[in-house]
Amino acid sequence: MRLYRFRGVDAEGRIVKGEQQALNLPELQQQLQSGGVTLLQAREVRTRGLRTGSAKLTRQERLDLMVHLQMLLQAGVPVVETLQDLQTSDSPALRRVAGVLLSRINAGDTLAAAMQTEPDNFDPITVSLVQAGEVTGQLPQVLERIVASMRWQIELIAQTKKALSYPAFVAVVVSGVVVFLMVYLVPQLVNFIQSTGQALPLHTRALIALSDAFVHYWWAILGTPPVVAALIAVAARRSEPLRYQLHRLLLELPMLGVVLRKIILARLMDVFGLMYRSGVPLIEGLEHCTQVTANLPVKRAVERARDRIINGTSITESFAREPIFPSLVIRMLRVGEATGALDRALENVTYFFNREVRDAVDRLQSMIEPVVTLILGFILGWIMLAVLGPIYDILGKIT
Questions:
Q1: Considering the chain, what is the average pLDDT of its residues?
Q2: What is the domain partition of the chain in residue ranges?
Q3: Which CATH number is 140-399 given?
Q4: What is d(CA 378, CA 221) in angstroms, rounded to the nearest whole number?
Q5: What was the pLDDT predicted at 265?
Q6: How far apart are the C-alpha atoms of 162 and 20, rounded to whole Å?
Q7: Per-residue pLDDT averaged across 18-28, rounded?
Q8: What DSSP designation does 53 have?
């Protein structure tokens, strides 16, 4: 496929400009004619060192595309005109994707089938939801639900980054302080203490040994953690049992594991409810839910629950046999299954977890600050005791 920048005129005599993908100029002319546009001029667009088809939409650009589709379709604008309007976007990637979708639709594909040709920009969940909307005639309503879910996901990703970035930043700061003290400050004080020739206490000798290790082997001390992390990552990629255990340990981390578990379950229940409300069959919806998270313990639990449902077990009982799902999820599933309002029950679970995640992130940040203060206080106290103690002993002997 090639990307062309074209100029044409529509049936009302208005000039139409944009970009669209096609195999060649004759196909481009045919695509535009099927949309009521007569081609006047076109030229192939070339990018610097990159394939024109490699541009990938950001999360915000995907959201903008879906919002545009949803609003114009709800207003009664045909999907072809909606995509033509998107081709005037300021984003080159968005113009390219709109051109691809328009090309496929003009060739006879549905919107879902056209999206399927862009797997990097439209995941199988989105494609299945759009397909369900086209089959049921409720595409604008389905797109509205997709937009709401995407906005919530962007907020959830921001909360996840907030939960992880702050502890990482604090760890870097504490590590920097420790390295500075051990490499620069402690050696200067230790030289004076050792010049006195007196016997040094155990904690002072331990500090000197640690400082010498930082001075002479700083490359090993600072390089070992990233090397070990890289080796573990490579091994986990090649070994599913190891990856499973690492994911399980991640969910069991103090404080942080609780937050990550709630984030994963909130995303899972949101997608489950979204697909159920949009008319996607239950089993197919659960199949897509296994693709929501890369966390293997959660993924395997959903797969086992899905297999039980296929064999005739109720939804509530199938999920209740998996300890990874908290009692709140089981209770809401039971209520939703009994009342026939499973989508509403899943929506309540998502709302509850979303609120819990926000509160948990705030609590985590408020707890990190005193913990960091204690760590720094302990390090500084040890250094003061190990260095100033012998100095006081020398001063006491002089007096």
A1: 82
A2: 2-122, 140-399
A3: 1.20.81.30
A4: 20
A5: 86
A6: 39
A7: 72
A8: G
Contact of 37 with 16, CB cutoff 8 Å: yes
Any idea which residue has 């230790």 for tokens? 190
Q: Report the predicted TM-score, pTM, of the whole model to 2 decimal places.
A: 0.67
Answer whether 29's CB lies under 8 Å from 39's CB: yes
Alpha carbon 367 to its chain centroid, in Å, reads 24
State yes or no: pLDDT of 227 exceeds 90.
Answer: yes
Question: CA–CA separation, 383 vs 396, rounded Å?
Answer: 20
Which of 14, 16, 18 has the alpha carbon at shortest distance from 5? 18
- Which pLDDT value is given to residue 48? 44
Q: Report the candidate in 259, 257, 264, 250 with the shortest Cα–Cα distance to residue 357.
A: 259
119 token code pair = 């797997």
Helix (H) or strand (E) holding 43: strand 37-44
Please answer whether residues 282 and 336 qualify as being in contact, where contact means their C-beta atoms are separated by less than 8 angstroms.
Answer: no
User: How far is residue 105's CA from residue 134's CA, in Å, rounded to a whole number?
Assistant: 13
Nearest to 35 by CA among 18, 11, 17: 11
In contact, 247 and 261? CB cutoff 8 Å: no
Query: Integer distance in angstroms from the first to the last C-alpha of the chain?
Result: 90
Return the SS3 of 2. Answer: strand
Q: Rounded to whole angstroms, how far apart are CA atoms 191 and 127?
A: 69
Residues 261-286 have a mean pLDDT of 84
Is the CA virtual torsion 271, 274, 277, 278 positive or negative?
negative
The token pair at 137 is 């005639």
The DSSP secondary structure of 217-242, one letter per residue, reads: HHHHHHHHHHHHHHHHHHHHHH-HHH
Question: For residue 41, what are its two tokens?
Answer: 């001029």
Locate 221 and state its tokens.
Answer: 């001390």
DSSP state, residue 89: -
Q: How many residues does the chain have?
A: 399
For 221, other C-beta atoms within 10 Å of its C-beta total: 16
Q: Which of 131, 261, 196 is nearest to 393 (CA)?
A: 196
* DSSP per residue, 141-158: HHHHHHHHHHHHHHHHHH
Burial 357-394 (b: 16+ CB within 10 A, else e): bbebbeebeeebeeebeeeeeeeeebbeebbeebeebe
Residue type, 66: M
